[in-house]
Amino acid sequence: MEDYKFLFKVVLVGNAGVGKTCLVRRFTQGLFPPGQGATIGVDFMIKTVEVENEKVKLFIWDTAGQERFRSITQSYYRSAHALILVYDISCQPTFDCLPDWLREIEEYASNKVLRILVGNKIDREDREIPTHVGEDFAQRHGMYFLETSAKEAENVERLFMEIAAELMEDKIQARSKELPRYETNTTSINGKTTSIGDTSNCGCSRLS
Amino acid sequence: MEDYLPNEYDVVVVGTGMTESIVAAAASRIGKKVLHLDSFQGDVCKHKISDEYYGGLWATFNFDGLQKWIEDLKVSKTSAKDVSEVDLELEEKFLKTSNEYSTVENIEETWYISNDADLPVVSSKDTQTDSTGDGSGSGDEKSDDDKVEKKENVKQWSIDRIRKEYRKFNIDLAPKLLFARGELVELLISSNIARYAEFRAVSRVATFMDGKLTQVPCSRADVFANKTVSVVEKRMLMQLLTSCMEQGADSPEFDGFRDKTFLEYLNTKNLTPIVQHYVVQAIAMATEKTSCRDGVNRTKHFLNSLGRYGNTPFLWPMYGSGELPQCFCRLCAVFGGVYCLKRQLDGVVIYKNKCKAIISGKQRISLEHLVLGQGHLPPEVVVSEGEQRISRGIFITDRSIMQGEKENLTLLYYPPEQPDQEPVTLIELGPSTNACPQGLFMVHMTCKRTTNAKEDLAYVVNKFLKAEPLDPLAIRSSIHSHTQTVSPDKRHIQEGDQDNREESTEESPKPQVLWSLYLNLPASDIKLNESTPSNLHLCSGPDLELDFDFAVNQAKSIFESMYPDKDFLPRAPDPEEIVLEGEEAPGPKFEGDTEAEEKQDVEKAEKED
């Protein structure tokens, strides 16, 4: 048996180049890969964190580059517990696209998904979007807000830890009952959903 | 404005249907450079109504998305570029592509319920103040007459309410089930793509027998618990099933029936009518014409898939069949495939009987292989438009066709009543599949087209559904307008009117249809002519079969003809297995997967540069 009590799916969206993959890598591996291209072969990353002495396992999904031409599959949003919408504080167009992303989120993500707006790259000198503008936007759309730097590792840990804590609390209060996937026990089939896969050599990413 | 795409690929795939998506994933998985495009059927630039979507004719839409899709189909199509506009080199030929082979016909949308505004004051107040529509809300105390009904059914449905809750609908153009041991399930597992999707086991297989619907016993436990079959019959059934299962169609058991029908074979087995009915109609889903070989194979397929997931041999993809092509697209993207859903294919450049490039907008994109969904073919290569055309009916109803504990996901095969009818496959989805909100059901009917969808399906609709408003004078069919007046639905009448004798005389009333959509999908057995360039590969649209085997097998054979020596979708690594730059401990090796390792190495090397 896996040693964790909670399992959550966190997905990242936002324009290409805002640093989604860097945030994930910084958090899961403590790395900042400079000048990396699109992430080939990496589907999602896993990290187990501890919140109030409970093990919480986060599955963190990246867009696989499909955001480049705005062609993210709807199924990417399905059953996400938390959704991180990222923009680049030094790049106005990435901020201007936020309403488009929100529309897509409204359409496909669960309406109970925890939504966080992240302004990344605060290490940059050439800031174009003041903090309060991001804050305002987040507030207007019922989102949490945080500014980060994947490069300087600023607020990255905090971002994911707060997500884990928030989701865990939700879970405990059973408010997130309806979030359909990635319950820790989806093995029973009748009346419950089924993930298919060989149970024999089951890695932790498969839930059958 | 156009997004600029890189100009050179190993494989260009146009269309995001099931077969196209599997091929795209398979090519990307072995390291080929893949471009995957799709575009709308309507005019791309001027009249764009709907958003980009995956799946083509295999798509699943929410209620709003479906409405936009229907609107889009009405918009007149513009013809693609003319040859004269394309810069060609010497000896190159330009073939314009056409969407005529994915034409959807006879769309007929009908509401059987009214708008909030047309309801009496007391009820419109009730529905308009409803914000979440979670069913069992407050303010329902007014009507006690419906107490026997489910609580969430108490509040009545209006057009406005359905529109408002559009996100809770997932409506399939081409709904399909997966046999638990069918081609697609095996592929999803072996490729590790299963992790992108989630399924629900079909809760019951139903059949129509002696004037009513009954549940077909599928598992051994079901067979033995079944009270309609005697012990002798149970033994008979088990014996027959065992021989189909163990011996297969090539067994000497079936020697005398090579050119006979399955029914003729069964007739020699002295089965009782009930047992024969179960085998023919529910297990083999056969007609009088089904050959013995097909019947045995179908029986075997059914039995093989039993006992793996749930009580029936079938799985249904959560959020609809349209999720599945997207799973393959995701894998393609994860391995570097480039996705663009808003690009129209204008035409194909042929040079010495090879596809050399495609023209898309201002760009010329060169390629080794071109994989085309049937909605993107140049007419010059098509020799037959096919005959297996499809009639579809989609219905939102207020209750299950067979109310009971297992009503959340039902499959019914209904054989023709008359010689000129086609057998109809009926899939009924409850709210737990995310096809519709609490309190409603989504019924999908599919059959081979003979006239048009509405006529082809009429005999089954009349049998199982109440597809008429109570006051037929007040309704008109809505294809172009959504402001029509319609009569109130049945429940409203029960509340507000004493005159409901028609309903009360029936033991279990038929589901009332709230909304219906009929449409005809194009044929899936389109054929290309002999002189088609060998690097142009056709992917068919949805076929008539219940499962995805056809698409999976077509994708396999396309991949094999492109890359005969390569593995078809080897298992994708789990995240834990990927060694990333800077990580200390090497993870386990990818099983049978040198390509991905190479790729990883390349990636590493590039970074170290």
UniProtKB/TrEMBL annotation, chain A:
The small GTPases Rab are key regulators of intracellular membrane trafficking, from the formation of transport vesicles to their fusion with membranes. Rabs cycle between an inactive GDP-bound form and an active GTP-bound form that is able to recruit to membranes different sets of downstream effectors directly responsible for vesicle formation, movement, tethering and fusion. RAB30 is required for maintaining the structural integrity of the Golgi apparatus, possibly by mediating interactions with cytoplasmic scaffolding proteins. One of its GO terms (molecular function) is metal ion binding. Keywords: Cytoplasm, Cytoplasmic vesicle, Golgi apparatus, GTP-binding, Hydrolase, Lipoprotein, Lysosome, Magnesium, Membrane, Metal-binding, Methylation, Nucleotide-binding, Prenylation. It catalyses: GTP + H2O = GDP + phosphate + H(+). NCBIfam families: small_GTP. Its cofactor is Mg(2+). Belongs to the small GTPase superfamily. Rab family. The keyword Metal-binding applies. This is Ras-related protein Rab-30. GO terms for cellular component: autophagosome membrane; cytoplasmic vesicle; Golgi apparatus; lysosome. It is found in: Cytoplasmic vesicle, Autophagosome membrane; Golgi apparatus, cis-Golgi network; Golgi apparatus, trans-Golgi network membrane; Lysosome. It is a lipid-anchor. PROSITE patterns: RAB, RAS. Its EC number is 3.6.5.2. SUPFAM superfamilies: P-loop containing nucleoside triphosphate hydrolases.
UniProtKB/TrEMBL annotation, chain B:
Keywords: Cytoplasm, GTPase activation, Transferase. Residues 123-133 have a biased composition (Low complexity). Residues 122-150, 479-511, 566-609 are annotated as: Disordered. Residues 500-543 form the RAE1/2 domain. It is found in: Cytoplasm, Cytosol. One of its GO terms (biological process) is vesicle-mediated transport. One of its GO terms (molecular function) is GTPase activator activity. It holds the Pfam family GDI. Residues 139-150, 488-509, 597-609 have a biased composition (Basic and acidic residues). GO terms for cellular component: cytosol; nucleus; Rab-protein geranylgeranyltransferase complex. Residues 575-584 have a biased composition (Acidic residues). Substrate-binding subunit (component A) of the Rab geranylgeranyltransferase (GGTase) complex. Binds unprenylated Rab proteins and presents the substrate peptide to the catalytic component B. The component A is thought to be regenerated by transferring its prenylated Rab back to the donor membrane. Belongs to the Rab GDI family. This is Rab proteins geranylgeranyltransferase component A. It comes from Melipona quadrifasciata.
